[in-house]
C-alpha cells in the first residue's frame, strides 16, 4: 500500500485494511484521504464531493471498522438514501464489504415484504439501508425500537437533496426521535457541491458541530458551451426526423458527441424534453436509452443495467440520474439546454471521469441566445466555485404536524413541552415558537388526530392517530399517479400525473412516452389506469408533465445582464460581433461562433439594452414587457406585484408570464405602460410581502398548496390535485384562513416561488437610481426573444412545420370515394393526392361530386334509394352538402372532407376561414381531428 494510502487507511483496523487490499483499494481518493481519519475518530462530518469519487466508501469504511468484531443485538448503523433506486445500489455495493467483514447488510423500504420486516425485527442486521419515510415507521415499532437502541452511526446520502425539501426537514426530526432511543450517534452526510456547506452541516447535526470535508469540483471540470450551426446536412436530417433544422442540428451534434465517447449521459431539464428528444434519436438510430422518473421501475432498471454493461452508448435522462445511481463509468456528460443552476451543472458533469488524473468532461449544447449566455455564465461560476446555497425549509408547520403524531406513537403519550423540545432540537425548527407549536397541536386535536390534555400538558394517542400516521409517512404531496398500460400486452409503459390526465388524457389523444408514440384508448379513473395502443403517427403531442421549470437564480441572470452590458456597449460603439465574441472567450468557456450566437439579439437591438444595471419597459398596445435580468423568483415576485397593483387600478385582471429575463404583461383597458413604471418607482419596498400575500388569495398556486398542507394536518383525508375533491378550493381558503394551515401554505409559496427580500432590494435600487428604468414604444429583439415558463423547444406553440407536413402527407396518401350526384352512376376510389383540382364525372361531365369515406357504400345506396328512411335522408343530405363544397372549392374540399371526423359542416368552417398560408389550413384540420378524438365517445 502506498504512503498516500497509508495516511488515510492506517486510521482503520486490520480487518478493514485487509479487505481494502483484497478489493484492490491501494490509494484513497481525495475525499477518502481527507475524511476517513476524522470519521474514524468518531467526528460528525459532511463530505462534499462529486458522484463517483468513492463517497460511499469514505463514509462506510470507518463505520464498518467500528462495527467489525463488535458484539451487539441491534442495528449498528443506518444508511439513509432519498431514493429506493439508491437503496438497491447501496445494497449491491455494500454486500461485498459485509461478506468480507462478516457483517450483515439489509435494505428496508416501502416494498419490503412483511416476512422480511419480521426477520429484521427478530434478527436485526448490522447495517440497514433505508429511506427517510421508512425510518419514520421503524421508530414506532416496539421490536424495532429495541433494535434501534444499538445504532451508533447514521449516514445520510445525497443530503443536499434532502436539505432543500420537506422530506429533509422531516428526517431531521426523525433523527432527534432516534436520539431519544439510541442516545447520541455519529452523523455523516454525503453531499454534492453546495454553496453553503456549513448550513447543510448544521442541518445534518442539529447545529452540534460538524467537520466539513470538501473536494474542489471546479478545478476538475472540463466544460465547453456549444450552440450548433445549421448545415445543409441538418436541413436534410430535419425531414427525416420530422422536426425543424435547428433541432436537427442539436440532435446531430449530440449524436457526434455520443459517437466520440464510450459512455455518455445526456441530461435534459424536463421529462417532456427527454421524451421528445428521445423520439428523434430513435428515428436517427442512436444506441441510446431514455430514463426519467415517470417510466416504470422495471424500464428504468433495464436501461440502467444495459448502460452499465455497455449495451447502450448513452443514457438520455433528467434529474433522475443526478443522484448517485450506479450506472458504471461515464466518460462524458452532455447537458442539453442551459442547466439553469450552477449546482445542477456541477452535479451532472461531475458524474463523468473520476479515474485518476482524469477531469470530469462535459458539453452544454444550447438552443437560443438567452440559453447560450446563461450557460456561459453558469459554466464560469461553476469553474470559479460560485455555487447557490441550499434552500432549507425552515419552520414548515405541516412537517411539525406530521412529526408530533409520530412522537406520540413512539411512546404512547408525552408531555407537550417534551415533544416541543424534540422538534426544536432539529435545525429547521430551531426558531419554532411555543405558540406556533401549540396552534399546530390544537389543529391536530380538532382533526381527531391526537388527544390533547391541556390541563396536564399531555399529548396522547387516539383511534385516528395510527391511521393518520401511516397514511402520512411521506411529506411528498399526495397526488394520484395513473399507470400507463399497453392495451395489447397489458405491460406497464410508465406513469402520468393526475393533473396531466385530467387536462389532456382523453381517448384518442396522442403522446410520447419511453420515446414512442401512444394513442389513449381508455381512462379508468377508479383504477387510475390509462390504456394506450402504440402508433407510428408522429403528429402527436408531448405530455405536459406536471412540474415547474428549474428556476434560474438571480446571480446567474445578473451575469447574463453583465454580459449584455459589456458586449452591447462594444457593439453600439461599432465593434464587430466576431471581435466582441473572441474577446469574451478569454473569460467564458465557449468557441467564438457560440459566443457570437448568444449576442444575436444585441446586434439588432437599437433601443437601450436591458442588463444588470438597466430595466427596459417595452410598450406595444396592451402588451408590456419588463425586461429585467433578475432571475425567476425575483421576476415572479415583481410580476405578481405589478399584476396586482396595476390590476387594482383597472379593476380587472392583468395576465402575466415570466422568465428569468422578462415579465410579460397583458394590460386591460384603462391602464397603460405608464402605470407599470409608476408602480416600480413609487411602491414602498416594505409593503411588498403584504401586497403579494393579498394577491395570492386569488391565485391557484396558494389554493393548490393549501389543499396539500391541509392533507398533512389531517384536515382533508385526501386531496385530488385536479380540483375534483369534494371540498372546493375557494371554500377551503375561506375555512382555513386564520389557521396554521394557511400560514404554512403562504410560507411555502413564498419559499419555493418568490424572493421578497431580493425584490425589495431591487425596488429600492430603482427608486434610488442605481438601477435605471428605460422605456421604448415597441417590441425589441430581446423582448421578443423570451422563453415562457410553459413552452418547450421541442413542442412548439403551434403544431410546427414538421407535424403539419406529417398531417399533409397522411391525408394526401389517404383514399377517398368520389361519387357523381348528377348521374348517380360514376364512382371511384382514389388517393387524395391524385384527385384533380376540380373533380368532374368522366361519364356526364358534372362537377357535382361528393367526397366520401372509402367505405361509405351505404351512402351511395341511400342516395339511390326511392323511399328513404330517416337515416337514409340524413346520409343523402350529407352527400349533397359534400358535393356542394367540392363543386365550390375543388380539391381543397376533398382534402378537408378526407380528414378524420371532419364532416361537411366542419369542412366548410375550415375552408371558409381566412388564413395566410397552406400550413394554417392543415393546422385547422389537425385541430378539428383532435377535437373529434376528444368527443367521439359521446356520439
Question: How are the elements arranged and paired?
Answer:
Blueprint: H1 3-9, H2 14-23, H3 30-40, E1 45-48, H4 55-67, E2 77-80, H5 84-101, E3 105-108, H6 114-122, E4 127-130, H7 132-138, H8 142-148, E5 153-156, H9 159-163, H10 166-182, E6 186-191, H11 197-205, E7 211-214, E8 221-226, H12 232-241, H13 245-259, E9 264-267, H14 271-284, E10 288-291, H15 297-308, E11 314-317, E12 332-336, H16 342-349, E13 360-365, H17 369-383, H18 397-411, E14 413-415, H19 416-425, H20 434-446, E15 451-453, E16 458-460, H21 463-471, E17 481-486, E18 492-497, H22 498-503, E19 510-513, E20 516-524, E21 529-534, H23 554-572, H24 577-584, H25 592-598, H26 600-603, E22 614-620, E23 623-627, H27 632-650, E24 655-659, E25 662-666, H28 673-682, H29 688-696, H30 700-712, H31 729-736, H32 740-753, H33 756-768, E26 772-776, H34 781-784, H35 800-813, E27 815-820, E28 827-831, E29 849-852, H36 857-864, H37 870-889, H38 891-898, H39 904-912, H40 918-935
Parallel strand pairs: 1-6, 1-7, 2-4, 2-5, 3-4, 5-6, 8-13, 9-11, 9-12, 10-11, 12-13, 17-21, 22-26
Antiparallel strand pairs: 14-16, 15-16, 17-18, 19-20, 20-21, 22-23, 23-25, 24-25, 27-28, 27-29
